[in-house]
Amino acid sequence: MSFSYATVIGTIQLTPRLRRITLQVDDPDALEVKAGGDSAVGVYFPIVGADGGRYVDPESGSEGRNYTVRAHAGDRIDLDVILHARGPGTTWASTTGPGERVGLDHARSWYRPEPTSDWQLLVTDLSGLPAAARIISELPGGMPVTVVAEVADVEDLEYLPPHPDVTVVASVGTGNGHAPSRLAQLVRELTLPEGRGYCWFAGEAAESRAVRKHFRGNGWTVDHLAVTGYWRFASEAWDAKFALVQDDVVAVWERALAEGKGERVADEEFDEALERAGL
Hints:
Blueprint: E1 3-15, E2 18-25, H1 28-31, E3 40-44, E4 47-48, E5 54-55, E6 64-73, E7 76-82, H2 88-95, E8 101-108, E9 119-124, H3 129-137, E10 145-151, H4 154-157, E11 166-172, H5 183-189, E12 197-204, H6 205-217, E13 225-231, H7 235-258, H8 263-276
Parallel strand pairs: 9-10, 9-12, 10-11, 12-13
Antiparallel strand pairs: 1-2, 1-8, 2-7, 3-6, 3-8, 4-5, 6-7
Helix pairs in contact: 5-6, 7-8
């Protein structure tokens, strides 16, 4: 696990639901932020100590959440955080300010489009909107890209940067923990271009499974899919059920890696094991 402390050096309210937190990282070499368009890090929030001070201690109860690295230069990173009605991440992002310390770890990314792809499909709800925005802003141009975005309000779509090659298919007011999601349905209803495509998905875990199964059922290989569940509906109940089968399903993932199947296949077999377990 890579780890570094960091200091908040600035905040900006981008939209009513999005706040940018700029951090200066103590040890960027240790953290090793990834260059992918959906680059992300885990953030540990400060807790209040017995003396009233605010401290970061991942070993002793500091809660954490994962956030997209919207921009990265040297020892500075911008995190664009979605603000919800409640939750530790929303509380931190809404109240933090310059000088506050956080912990960072688990720098990673999933978006790795194949050079042979003729077009791309980006599918996301609010949780993946910052990553989708960064991917769009870094597109080289010349390749058609469709974005399926499930948002709370039309103004959320204004956060996505304009791009001449990008077409946005929006679902407003669905999903995001407040109503049934339409992401998988919208993907199934799309008329996709000819040629080899690449699909990146970031959103609720059940929808990610449905989207992955749709494309795998249509003959897509794992090399042309980056399907990641960023969050899970009714997560507390799911966590309780997962605890009962954790050893067995994790063993499936570890065995796939040991057999040299690669991380993407291991993740897929892990998800299939979860489904067999009723999760």
